[in-house]
Amino acid sequence: MSETSSGSADALLKTPLHALHVGSGARMSPFAGYQMPVFYSSIYEEAAAVRGSCGVFDVSHMARFIFPAEATPALQRLLTCDVGRIRAGAGSYALVLSEEGGILDDVILYRKPDGQFLLVVNASNHEKILNWIHSKIGRTGAPQDITADTAMLAVQGPQAQEILQEALTPGVGGRTAAELGYFGISNMRWTIFDQMESLVARTGYTGEDGFEIIAPAGIAEKIWKWLTETGTVAACGLGARDVLRVEAGYSLYGSDMDETTSPYECGLGFAVAKDAPYIGAEALKARPIRRRLIGLDAGSQPSAVLRHGYPILSDGRPAGQVTSGVFSRTLGRSIGFGSVDAGLSETAPLSVDIRGRMVPVKRGSRRFVRDRVKAHSQGGT
Amino acid sequence: MAIPSDLKYTKEHEWIRLNGKTGVIGITQFAADQLGDVVFVDLPQPGQAVKQSETLASIESVKAVSDIYAPVSGKVVRVNSALASKPELVNADPYGEGWMLEIEVSTPSESSSLLSPANYEAHIQENKS
What CATH homologous superfamily does A64-133 map to? Predict the structure, then answer.
């Protein structure tokens, strides 16, 4: 059998939960410079747990930067969202663009209850974005990188609120898990762990209701154990996370977008605030839209799994390529995203070249699983 | 993880159960565990001839497509049609119900290049470290 993913584990970083993952028999694999769990028992069982009840992911590899409250103008230069409109306790999805309007990263910016900003950056772009920040706003006003000192856990699924409500109480001036709106963020205290503090935001990458918790590295194991042993939450790996995010229509940096892609070429126009003075704004206005990111449905046969890089054809001519794909057991269908020529007619017949076999695919919405996220449209109230 | 003593193995984690002129082929428990949930096994047509170390089949897991190589040269005589509707048999019972295909061995001497159970076990221990 040909090798799947493997590599030297020596130079890889470990999250505060690494020992627990290894101890529970997780299949570990290198990801963005970290050794990360891909699955514990079964990717599909883990994905089903998140859709049906609740699962927890170790996402400590994602970079976390803290900016002072005075950084508003600097952040407005760096990010495509309207930074001034983010109130304390709220957050927003945003993009970091190059001077040419290409995407350097997709991020979430929160304004903590104390007025400081928390920027969550993709693990694969940690160094790149830190260098970009330094080059654009200088070292004074540079953020504090709290990635190594903290852990980040994503608790996702229809039962997530109920489970966290049991273990967390609001910090001073904070809100309960139930009171948080989408992208809302609050300080909370673990009633079960000596009132230790964590930041809790209502967000996720699965298409389910859920929360992301940023906790001191020292209590990460306690939280994980409580969730998985007493809280009946399934330990989930990055494999399930990928299946769930494709089902929910969420793009992944490096697969569905990169520096050659503008926001409008990968369905992220919603993340660009009109008239905001971010880097790349002028270039973006003049930049032609060459591609579109579309949803692809290759039918119910698991023999037709779509994979990144497979060519998309229309009437036998090259029309683009698959950027992400999974076989969804939730839906019983082979689904994915494709980047196709912007000029292509919406009704043009499409097929994907699956290693020499032409498989017809239907074009549609990228949100294959929808209407499951609570308060999705309410903003961070 | 127990490694069946009646099989021969390759470094690429295929096994073959030789029985006279034929041999039944599958992938090892180690390989199945590495792959995770198997979604689809692309098997050849009976009658297809294949040379040792050439691609014989492919196996699609949630994360990746992997090729399965022929442990020895031969001609495919039978494939496990149960895998079409139950690919998860590869994960659940890789040495039993998760078998993939049977070949008629054309060059019996090639089997001397295969790993014994003890050598295969040593090989996966090396792989893990």
Answer: Aminomethyltransferase beta-barrel domains (3.30.70.1400)
